[in-house]
Amino acid sequence: KEMDYGPFLTGTFEIVPEESERFHWPEGKDLRGQVEPDANIAYKAIAIRLDPGEGGVSEGHTWLAFEHDTMRVAGVWKGEGFINWQGINFDHQHWFWPRTSGKIVYETEDEPGWANPATGKFEDERFIGLDGRRFGPLPREWTHYKGLYRHANRIVISYTVGEVEVLESHLLTESGDIARILNIGKSQEELTLRLANGGSRMTLQGSKVVQLSEQDGFLIATIPAKATPLNVAFISGDASPAIPQEDLDLEPLTRGSPSEWQQTITSPIVRGTQDGPFQWDSFTIPRENPWKSWLRTTGIDFSPDGKSAYLCTWDGDVWKVDGITDESALNASWKRIAAGLFQPLGIKRVGGEIFVSCRDQLVRLHDLNGDGEMDFHESFNSDHQVTEHFHEFAMGLQTDADGNFYYAKSARHGRPPLVAHHGTLIRVSADGSTTEILANGFRAANGVCINEDGSFIVTDQEGHWNPMNRINWVRPGDKFYGNMWSYGVGDNSANSAMEQPLAWVDKGFDRSPAELLWIDSKSWGPLNGKLLNLSYGHGRLEIVPYEFIDGQPQGGLSRLPIPDFPTGIMRGR
After folding, report:
1. Within 13 Å of residue 304, how many CA atoms lie on the same side as its CB?
2. Can you tell me the distance from the alpha carbon of 521 to that of 499, in angstroms, rounded to the nearest whole number?
3. Which pTM does this prediction carry?
4. Nearest-angstrom CA–CA distance, 3 and 197
5. DSSP characters for 272-309?
């Protein structure tokens, strides 16, 4: 809670009234991992701080959560605390998720925020989970999240409703009310927007033809096609004063932000002087930094010249590290270039652009004004199906020769699956328009390795249906890799068709195999072209010798003759 995440933080948040009158589980019932029947959970929430001041979202007093699966304002709240800081990446809790703290100003339950412009109806077309709840984005032809612009402490959200371009931002007025500002492009159809749950009060600024009404338990705005294009604000309260007219135009906020993280941090490089054939340098992580950023690094890639590294961290940052090839340098130079992402666990540079795989989406980062900081977080693909469960990590990021992207989605931890993405290997098309499941049956597939023949190597972790750690040689198609708590397995007869791994890995040797990669450097001598495993459990590097017998890969692991590193290794390039 001490970390400065910046003006927004993306995550899964439950909107909880200060004195909730909602359903409560009977006393003595185990609440771990249970969702109350009428809970308002924003699965892909952009939580934005609205009040001014230093310290980012965690130091604020007024917040708004915009949910980009449904394009709704899930909730607005005020108080002395942002959230309760429960959740796997905050306090290591396995069975809880963060909930808002304070008093709710208004909220919108988990339903589509805009009517389908083709039908004028709100009938929900999201994926139906096995528990009956809805998950994932609405169809793209209905509404599509395009990304967010950062301009100092202002956040502008970009999306479409049908063919109509929409920019949305939010302001805290001088009187303490909340203004929801919309820039709506030209529409051929009447548009209908759910502003809040029924009983909420709002005033309108910027149009005399937009109508506010109550409908089916919601406060509704009806926008005639003839009124578009339109810049309009909906302001909480009965008699809210007008906001300045220039604040209704959001386009100036989409051209790039003033630099927020100007300070560059230096951190010592411990150069390798080891005996034997293997040398390694240690780049110290700058844990002492102005933003108290918790630098748990989760992905790495390099600039084409090798002089810069790009790192993502579990708490939502992206950092650029310079000075890594200067062997006379005593320090590396670290610069924070992005923040507020949702548990990123993979990063890849493609064609000079930075892509980050997050729990809610695959993000392409853009520096719009050349100051080295990322001003536009483009949602390259947001097909991801997200629940509140702590374990469904989106692991790794790779691309093939055709430009397609790959990541692995973990299953729920000791729980039946809910959505089709649980426990799968996933491909996103090179243009970001489609998502395809290639294989299932994974528990915690920590990264993806692409082979020249179009197959993959994916590790998995011991637990529940997995009696030991696995290194899987994965071929796309109707393949099942052992975890009965992944989606689409069916009854236990599927177990007889389980694909055997390349190797079962005893936890005494490696309690958590991570991502594998092919060595493609002549400086590795006879190991060039071999397969390398990274040990998250023991901090080891391991060669994976293997062979094929009647089409079945089989092999093992051999430690490189170097000591274990002081921390686990998860990603490599």
Report:
1. 4
2. 32
3. 0.97
4. 33
5. ---SSS----EE----S-TT-----EEEEEE-TTSSEE
